[in-house]
Every structure is written in structure tokens, then in C-alpha cells.
Amino acid sequence: MEINKEQEALAKKKFEDDIKNVDSDDVDYASKKGKTKIDELDKNPPSVLMKVWNDLKLMINLIIDYVKGDYTNVPWNTIAAITGAIIYFVSPIDVIPDFIPVVGYVDDLTVIKFTLDLVSEDLIKYKQWKNN
């Protein structure tokens, strides 16, 4: 299942616009809403997100640990990108609304993959920290 180039461009533009204005309230919101949504979907994640599910959970956990002050050795642009991706993921209304069966999370997948490309090195460092 894929989205067309126009939908992909709209999703990326919305994400890029959103991360320019991320503040600490957004980070806090993303940590809480991201955790809630992951908990709701964890037993039966959307099939389209299966390949990135563990990475998405890792991003949400990084934000949670950042908000708690447990993990702060991460650049603000990484926090902003992850926050933007999580807010996009938890929002039911985006380029393709999540309530549309099967395809509702395809645009979310695009944003998550884009974010993973941006923050992969910092996620690796966080995962190493988390495992120690």
C-alpha cells in the first residue's frame, strides 16, 4: 500500500512545517499521546506500520525519557523531528485520515520513515543508553 507523490509531498510538508515550531509543551504532549496510542495499538498494530513499529516505540520512549529528564544527551533538532512525527502519528486527521481502513496509516508511515532517516544515529545512541 502506497500513497501518491502528491500525498507524500503534503505529508512531508506538514511535518516539516510542524517541526519548525516545536516547543517543550509539544514534546510533553507527544510523550503522553504517543505512549497512549502505542499502548492502544500495541496488541494489534496497523499492518502498514509493522516494519517501523519497534522504531516508532523507541522514538516515543526517547521522548518520554527526555521529558522525565532521564535522557537529555540528544540535539534539539532530533527532539523536534521525533515530536513532529509523533504528533503526526497521533493525529487522526492528517493527509490520509487514520480512520480510513488499511490506508489510514500510510501517510504516517511516510513521516515516520522520513524521521527515522533524520534521527537514526541519535536513536542508535539512545538504544545503547537504554540497554545499559
Automatic annotation (TrEMBL):
The keyword Membrane applies. It is a multi-pass membrane protein. Signal peptide: none annotated. It is found in: Endomembrane system. Its main location: membrane. Residues 79-112 form the DUF1232 domain. Keywords: Membrane, Transmembrane, Transmembrane helix. It comes from the Bacteria. It holds the Pfam family DUF1232. GO terms for cellular component: endomembrane system. This is DUF1232 domain-containing protein. It comes from Arcobacter acticola.
